[in-house]
Every structure is written in structure tokens, then in C-alpha cells.
Amino acid sequence: MILEGIRVLDFTQYLAGPGVTRLMAELGAEIVKIEQAPGGDPSRLLPFVKDGRSGFFVQQNRGKQSVCIDYAHPDSRALILDLVRHCDVAIENFGPGVMQKRGLEYADLAARNPRLVMASVSAFGRDSPLAHKTGYDWIVQAYSGLMHMTGPRDGTPHPVGMSIADGISAVNAYGAVMTALFHRERSGRGQYLDLSMVDAIFQLHDVNVQGPSLAPGFTPSRMGAHHQLACPMGIFKAPEGYIVIMALDLQWKNVCAALGRPELEHDPRFVGQVNRAKHEDVLVPLIEEWLASFPTNAEALACLERHRVPAGPVLSPLDALEEEYFAARGTIRTTRDPILGELRIPGFPFRFSDQPELPDLVAPLLGEHNEAVLGRVLGYDAERLAALGAAGVLVKGER
User: Fold this and answer.
1) Where do the H-state alpha helices sit in 27-121?
2) Are the C-beta atoms of residues 124 and 201 closer than 8 Å to each other?
3) Strand stretches in the chain, DSSP E
4) What's the rounded Cα separation, in Å, for the pair 242 and 219?
5) Alpha carbons 65 and 62: distance in angstroms, whole number
6) How does pLDDT run across 347-380, given as a tens digit for each residue?
7) What is the chain's Cα-based Rg?
8) Which residues pair with residue 335 across a beta bridge?
9) 7-10 and 30-36 as β-strands: parallel, antiparallel, unpaired?
10) For residue range 21-47, what is the model confidence (pLDDT) as tens digits?
């Protein structure tokens, strides 16, 4: 496995942080998930829950080892610092000031292990005027301008229908950690990574930031179902729901051929993307009328494909579960959990030519690996482990 031999001290919870270590676990890294007693990662209670076990938690924490520690106990910090000496990476996404309060900031950890790569994932970054603020996915979507750009053209701002800020921040952080590990191979030095979720989303703006610099008067605004600068480029009513058509200037001729209306290619209203966008109120109904002539979406899409017009169906998540593409790519994967049973989850997003087939990993019970990790990594014997359990430093749960 690509990351075999890399040990990660994982202080994360919910989604943005666990998403980083989830990717690393899939590639063979050893993830030691430090959970806070008494309940551990709060995502253990997030929907959907069956027999006290959360599918949300299972999806993000497969292949990790759980060590549950009572941070309030005076011996907990020394135990964690002992573990730090034997780790390559530490990742946390606590609220502002939590790691500082616990004496577990980067300076504290690096003093024990100068080769450590530590990443903090937070809404506004640890070094910023808003570092004191707590923020979650929708707050990040709002502050980054993403929410302003999403929703009906003349309606209210909308959030994206999944935790996109958490997810993209996790992938960003994963890339940063991998880069820092590569740098460590060259320099021998670890370093601290301050990763802001707002920064991760803001850098996705393609024209909204640079546009006003080059086109005075341009105001980024919600597009709704159709692009404000190009047409046909949007969501179209089709025989069975909706399809997306994205035709650039080079493909306009192909669109006209598919519609059986070659004369539209040189119609003054439709020459160039700007003109077509201005006359969207004419062009969109024309295309939707043509789409309505097909019995099914598949037949309409096949016609567009024959004419080399980029298009695709608007699938619901349930539609995607039955789509051949997702099964063939492993984008949807069936895993087996000892409590939940068979569970379908999103697959691994990276494909490597030199990487063994991914193992079927299992998410840990709370504190399941207390003894195994501390015995193997720190050499604690059974008597010492029993004493830590009796003192309440180490905690276990049934789920």
C-alpha cells in the first residue's frame, strides 16, 4: 500500500477532518483516532443510525483504530505526547483554542517530534482575523461566496445539497499533508499546515473574482438553471426529468444539426455565446420543445451524442446507485459492517496503476484499540493499561 508505514494521530471529528484520514487509511496509513471521552467523535450519533451505530461515522472512519481518552484527566496529555513521538502526521479540526487549551498545539507536539507534519483544518484558519469564530459547512459556503452564486436567478441564495465545503477541504488538506510529507523526505523537517475551509472553497471561483478586474461592471450573480455568459449551457426540461447541455462556440453548429435546424447557426440572434446568452429566453424553449419530441431521455441524449454535443442526465443519488458507470468504476462500493450489515457507500476517488486492490475496512468501536495501540506503539504492559482504564484515562464503548 502506498502509505504503508505512515502513522497518523487523528484528533478529528465530524467530516472535514475525518475525510482527510479516511483517504489516508484507504491507502494503507495507520490511523490512530484519538476520541474524547465519554462519547467520542460526535458523528457517532449522526444519521442514519441503526442499533446505535451511525452510517455517517462508519463511512468516514473505516480502517481507523480508536483510542478513547478523557482529556480532563491529568495523565491524558502525557499519554498523547508519548504517542506523538511515534507518529508521522497529526491532524485536528477542533474549534478555536481547543488544542491550545489542552497543551497540544504544534509547538508542543513538534518539541517531542520535529519530523511531525501537523495539519489544522478550520473554517477561517488558525492565523486570521476570524480565527476565533466557529464555522460549519453552510457558514463556509455563505462566507466564501458559494451560497450567493447558488440558487434561482431571482430567488434567495441556496446551499449546495451536500457537505461540499467539508469534502473539498478534506481533499485539500490531504494534498497539503502529502506535499509536506514529500518535503520531509527531502529536508528531514516536519511542518505545520494551517488550512482554512473558506480558502478551499474560495479558490474554486473561476470567473467571479478575476472577472470584475477585466470587465468593469460585471457583477457575479446567481445563474439559476442557465449560465449567464453562454447558451446553450444549462439544465433543460426533458422527457423524463432534466438533462444538462454544455455547448461551447465550437459545438453550436452541432447543436443546430442535432435540432434539425441548420439555419439557426447563422441566425444573428445566436451568433456567438454572448448573443445566445442574451436571447436565452428564445433559445431555451426552442431546445426544450425539441427535447419533448423524444420518448425518453436516453434517446434525446443519444441524438446529442451522435452530433457530438456535450450532454448528460441529471441523476438523483438513487438514480446513481443503479447507473452502470458507478458500479464499473467502483464509485459506489458495498461494504460490510459487523453491526449495520451490508452498506453502500461512496468509493475511493483515486485510481493508481501501482496500488493493491482496496481492502474492505471496518470502522472501530469506541476505544476498541486502546490496549492494542498503546501496547504495540508505546510498549505499555497489561498492568499499566488496566490501571489507565481503572483511573478513567482510557474509556470504551459498545458502538
Assistant:
1) 55-61, 76-84, 98-101, 106-112
2) no
3) 7-10, 30-36, 49-50, 53-54, 64-69, 89-92, 117-122, 191-196, 233-238, 241-246, 311-313, 332-337, 341-346, 394-395
4) 28
5) 9
6) 999 999 998 877 789 999 999 999 999 999 999 9
7) 26
8) 343
9) parallel
10) 999 999 999 999 999 999 999 999 999
Q: Which three cell numbers stand for residue 200?
A: 478551499
Which pLDDT tens digit goes with each residue over 283-341?
999 999 999 999 999 999 999 999 999 999 999 999 999 999 999 999 999 999 999 99
Contacts of 120 (CB under 8 A, 6+ apart): 91, 92, 93, 99, 106, 126, 192, 193, 194, 195
Architecture of the domain delimited by 233-316: 2-Layer Sandwich (3.30)
Q: What grid cell was written down for 368?
A: 476498541
Q: Please, are residues 52 and 337 in contact by the beta-carbon 8 Å criterion?
A: no
* Residue type at position 336: R
CATH class of the 7-203+326-395 domain in this structure: alpha beta
And the C-alpha cell for 246?
Answer: 454544455
The mean pLDDT of 190-210, rounded to a whole number, is 98
Domain ranges of the chain: 7-203+326-395, 233-316
d(CA 10, CA 32): 6
Helix (H) or strand (E) holding 371: helix 370-378
How far apart are alpha carbons 177 and 171 in whole angstroms?
10
If pLDDT is split at 50, 70 and 90, which confidence band does 18 have? Answer: very high
DSSP code at position 265: G
Q: What are phi and psi of 34, to 5 degrees?
A: -85, 115
Q: What is the largest CA-CA distance in the chain?
A: 86
Question: Could you report the per-residue pLDDT of 71-107, keeping only the tens digit for each?
Answer: 999 999 999 999 999 999 999 999 999 999 999 999 9
Strand partners, 33: 10, 66
Quick check: pTM over 0.70?
Answer: yes
Contacts of 162 (CB under 8 A, 6+ apart): none
Contacts (Cβ under 8 Å, ≥6 apart) of 218: 211, 212
Residue 357: predicted pLDDT: 79
Residue partners of 57: CB distance under 8 A and separation at least 6: 41, 43, 44, 46, 363
For residue 367, CA distances in Å to 89, 276, 336 come to 20, 60, 20
| Catalytic center residues | 227
Euclidean distance between CA atoms 55 and 53, whole angstroms: 7
Q: Residue 156 corresponds to which amino acid? A: T
